[in-house]
Write a structure and sequence with these properties.
16% strand; alpha+beta; 16 helices; single chain; 5-stranded mixed β-sheet; 5-stranded antiparallel β-sheet; globular
């Protein structure tokens, strides 16, 4: 079975979808605890080439009505492709779920759900997207609350033990600091089992003693569903401390909370800081404690700043040399803040998007500009793209433009996959194969998604004016979609 690709939002349990009374779904076979990453509809006899893994695969069984059709092979191929569950719509082809299909799902461990007459596949898909959006909102709130608590702890007397205590509590596990020789000298949270302690000691040794010191290392203890163990280096060279964590959960929010604590502990335990480093540390702590950007800006350097987004290069190597220490290399995209007088230049092996210079009150807009420029650079296969000021953006009131964009793209905004497919397809001038390669999906998937966009928008996507208007709208919704 293949591992599902990273989704745009947290997965949701099948049980949560089954609990939606308006859908009237019924579990026929399998585990309701299966995690759904997205939804796909197919009537193909062999769905394998069209699945990425983690889908709720919806079908009305058209392919099973053919003479000689083998339900067991269909289920086997779906399970092999990594589908999370199978949703079977009764009517118009079948009046009930075929017994052979239910037996095959039970045999291959693929949960089977009956979709009653009157419940459309679109309604099921929309419910999944809404559940994912709710899960993402809950995750963001949890991260925000934890960051505030960590920042408050960092401002107390004895900040290091306070931060470790808050961190262990938020992660439901243990947080400990280790000296360069691997000995533990500060910790908070629950105790570790001998197996967990030995595994964490090994991770700390990898981070603290390797010749080429990695920034982090991870492992697990207790088998599938066990404790997640992570070690982060807090300093440079061989003299820095190591943060060791035992996490009860394996969710993205926990990683974000741990990364915030890692930054704070790096600042709090740094043995020597020059004037520039101390100023940046003060700026970070003030921001985490709720200071306005314009109050912190003078500590970071001369304005205006330029935001740079970069992707590519060696995932384990250093970020591109942009001439600034204000760099965030999380989530696969490097984001850098360049002070006045510095300009981004092409970097071998990297693709860069560069914003227009901006003051402290416009950094959020500059960040969106850099993200759009990076997408344009990737679509055009060029090493560097800059934000292009002027054009339609300069002629239209921003609030009116945003409202128009959201009204125009409203039918798509519940489906980030459709929005991103339309964006890439338009940027590549309607090229099916190039769009499929850019998104990492099959060209037939691109055709299906673009056709779905055209139907939902009730628009002729072959019309040049329609494409222009949609491209403008997509540039306004940007990363919010």
């Amino acid at each position: 079975m293949v591992e599902p690709l990273v989704p745009f939002g947290p997965p949701v349990r099948l049980a949560a979808l089954l609990a939606r009374p308006e859908l009237g779904l019924r579990l026929v076979a399998g585990d309701p605890g299966a995690e759904l990453h997205w939804v796909h509809t197919s009537e193909m006899a062999d769905p394998y080439p069209y699945l990425l893994g983690g889908e709720l695969l919806l079908t009305a069984g058209v392919q099973l009505a053919d003479a000689g059709a083998d339900p067991a092979r269909f289920v086997a191929r779906a399970a092999e492709a990594g589908a999370a569950a199978l949703g079977f719509g009764v009517t118009p082809v079948y009046d009930t779920v075929p017994g052979a299909l239910a037996e095959a799902c039970a045999r291959y461990g693929l949960p089977l759900v009956e979709v009653e007459p009157g419940t459309t596949f679109a309604a099921v898909a929309r419910a999944v997207w809404r559940l994912m959006a709710d899960a993402r909102l809950h995750e963001l709130r949890r991260v925000t609350d934890a960051q505030r608590a960590l920042a408050t702890a960092a401002a107390r007397p004895g900040p290091v033990p306070a931060v470790l205590k808050v961190l262990a509590g938020r992660l439901g596990g243990r947080a400990a600091l280790y000296a360069p020789d691997g000995t533990e000298y500060a910790a908070a949270g629950r105790g570790l089992t001998p197996e967990e302690a030995a595994a964490l000691d090994r991770l700390v040794a990898v981070v603290a003693r390797a010749e080429r010191r990695p920034s982090s290392a991870a492992d697990s203890a207790g088998g599938a569903g066990g404790v997640r163990l992570v070690a982060y280096s807090l300093g440079t060279g061989r003299e820095g401390l190591t943060l060791g964590l035992a996490l009860a959960r394996h969710e993205e929010a926990d990683q974000r909370i741990a990364e915030t604590a890692m930054v704070l502990l790096s600042l709090l335990t740094a043995p020597h800081q020059g004037a520039d480093e101390a100023a940046r540390s003060a700026a970070l702590v003030r921001l985490l404690l709720g200071a306005r950007p314009e109050e912190v800006a003078p500590l970071l350097g001369e304005a205006p700043w330029t935001v740079v987004h970069a992707r590519g290069g060696d995932p384990l190597g250093p970020p591109p040399a942009l001439g600034t220490p204000l760099v965030d290399a999380s989530d696969g995209t490097v984001r850098a803040l360049l002070p006045a007088g510095r300009d981004a230049a092409p970097q071998p092996g990297w693709t860069l998007g560069v914003s227009a210079p901006a003051g402290p009150d416009a950094l959020a807009a500059a960040d969106a500009q850099a993200a759009r420029a990076l997408r344009r650079a990737e679509a055009a296969h060029t090493g560097l793209a800059r934000h292009r000021p002027g054009g339609l953006d300069a002629l239209v009131d921003p609030a009116e433009a945003d409202a128009h964009a959201r009204a125009l793209l409203g039918p798509l905004l519940d489906s980030p996959a459709l929005v991103e497919t339309l964006r890439v397809w338009l940027s590549l001038h309607g090229g099916w194969d190039r769009t499929a390669a850019a998104l990492g999906v099959h060209r037939n998937t691109v055709r299906q998604r673009v056709a779905r966009c055209a139907a939902l928008l009730d628009a002729d996507l072959e019309d040049a004016q329609t494409r222009m208007e949609l491209w403008f709208a997509l540039s306004r919704v940007g990363d919010d979609a």
